[in-house]
Here is the input.
Amino acid sequence: MGYSGRDFSTRRIGAAAALVMAGAALAGCGDGGSSTDPNRGKDAKSYSLTITRNAIEGGKNTEEAEWITRTVIPGFVAAQKAKGVTAKVTFRGQGVDDESYKTKLALDLKSRSGADIMDVDGIWVGEFAQAGYLRPLPEVVGAPADAWDGWPTIPGTVQKLAMFEERRYGIPPATDGRVLFCNKRLFARAGLPDGWQPKTWQDIIAAGRALRRLPSVTPIQLNAGTAMGEATSMQGVLPMLAGAGAEIYTGGTWTGGGQAVKQVLGLYAQIYGPEGLGDPKLQQEAKGRDKSFEEFAAGKIGILAEGDYFWRDVLNPKTGVAKMKTRDQDVGYALIPAVAPGKGVRGQSYVSMSGGAVTVMNPNTKYPQQAFELLAFMNSAEMTKARTAGTPELTSRTDVNKEILAGDPFLTFVSEKVLPVTSYRPGLAVYPEVSTALQEATASVVAGKSPAQAAAEYAKKLEGIVGGAANVTPR
Amino acid sequence: MAPPTSPRADLGPPAPRDAGDDAAGLGRGRAAAFVAPALVLIAVFLVFPALWTLYLGTTDYRLTGIAASDPKFVGADNYGDVLGDGDFHRSLWLTLQFVVGSAVLGQTVLGFAIAWVMRDRRGLLRRLVEGLVLLAWILPGSVIAFLWIALLDRDGGTLNALLGTPGTAWLLDHPMACIVVFNIWRGTAFSMMLYGAAIGNVPPSHLETARLAGASTWQTLRDAVLPRIRGHVLTSLLLVSLWTFNDFTPFLITAGGPDGRSEIMSVYVYRTALGDGRLGFGAAISLIMILINLVIALLYLRALRDRSRKAAVA
Here is the structure.
């Protein structure tokens, strides 16, 4: 009896190891000759393709899921039928944290399986490409990749989202920008102006102090900690770092624990410190970000830093995950200020961060030509317009943007005021780890450590991640 | 085979030596053929993966990036890094709390207590108690994880509603206590059933004698019951501590958080290997986990053997 107990538990670990090993063995198998031929399966009269992304009907990014199942797939299947080809396209929706979604994709691609068309975050392109999970489009599909008629409509800066080492890996459908959202109703009760636009970080803190006087209102939500994952970097640390005049990676070195990082962590300390301008617990909870959405929609948060996604997909009165019926009347927005006018990155007074998803092709697809045809179809002007019909967004196509943004003051604001001052993250494989180190630094400040100490710990960790002090510059 | 009328004669010195040579009378070749399938299975599913884990642990193999396509040999670096990693020490310490608190103390004591209290009871009460305890054990982990999150949630959690303490974040303020209590609740059924069977094996005459001699409950347990069930105690402790050591269900409730304050060993491996994508480093931790498992198992086995040797001498 006792003996079998030992057997059992070691076998469990053994089984886990065997799974890892099976993955490794699959990844290690050489390229089968035919699986890299761009024209394999080209003349099939009947084929099936699968699309996946982190969107699911009735849940996360429900609009995108509906767009795929109700518009893209029927449209594509009909177009193929007209050509005498039977296409079967399946959508495999996901509704999970971005980190879990990434792990799943990586494991799928490692085992040479997974959907034929998938969405990845722009910053994953580099590490997936380095791992050999993704290959440049021209390698996978051949000449049609560069000949696509949509490329001229996508600005070069936006195309960079889908590029790694100057080669295209997919098509970016859209981009975004970051702003400060505020609840106008709470602002009015706290005696703050209607068209609020802070010019310094102290303006934000001052507004927070005014909001704190309202009962059961959290004045400021600036994402922090590791539970929020990349949201902490994108909506918190990185825009603030840009506001303090630094980028996380410039001139070939990473930004260590210098003045700018200390200033950013100092801001966190001020918000989540004894003054109580933010809710430290919310930053630690496993579902903290979702909860912050709900609280904002319920009028319990005064100021919240987020991307335009928050307006389109979260607060959206019709399709949002945390619907806010009075969004158009009650929610204001402002540019994220630098620490002081002119002190931001490139001497700017206002800053933002941008990113976006990239639709890529699984290099192991059985039908590369058909899959690329589907990919191009999804990003055609017609489909892009259909995708944004319910809720306009900043698409990657300038021809579509001209038409759809005209009637939308918020997105016009993002497009005209935010995108000119925005910054992008470095598409390097090591970036996600640097990002985690930044998140951990904010977590320790929220938990009560001094900004100087957290900055020093961050700098030490950073050196370990990027391969030594030579690759780090304190800024 | 042995004449049933004279069993004592078989226990003479020559008999065991005969049995040790060839008890089943198969001969060496056929005996080897007989165990070969089992040995092959053990080799394929146990020894080889363990060796492979050992090998992976010596590379910088990762889930993504250059090291995924072209892992490099880094020698014992990973093992050194794991042993020097503050997160590993914290995780080991938390796992120790988890195993001792929830398995060794919690499940064993509670399971025994329920079995002892219920030993003479029949009918509805006993079936009800056993049913509830068993239910906690057999429900799927993902389902009960949801139930526990609903119970302990900060906003609108059942516990806060019962205690009248709205806004208390149990899972954030006391993450370890939460998962320890959770695991006691979850796993008590096994100990209860095992001890229930064991107590049933204590001859009623012993308990009767103890009662007539005026022994207190504590004295009865110590002098009449415990000597009879010591083997069961060791077996139960071995099983529940190994199960608990490798348990992953707490991840579904706290995800190792907040800030790693409930990051027990299995969660730590998951986070480093799949969350951070450091497969080589994760393999190094896994191997260390295997070794810890073996040590725990050896300690218990030794205790069991000592006991049976003593019993044989007696």
About this structure: The domain at 34-175+355-424 of chain A is CATH 3.40.190.10 (D-Maltodextrin-Binding Protein; domain 2).
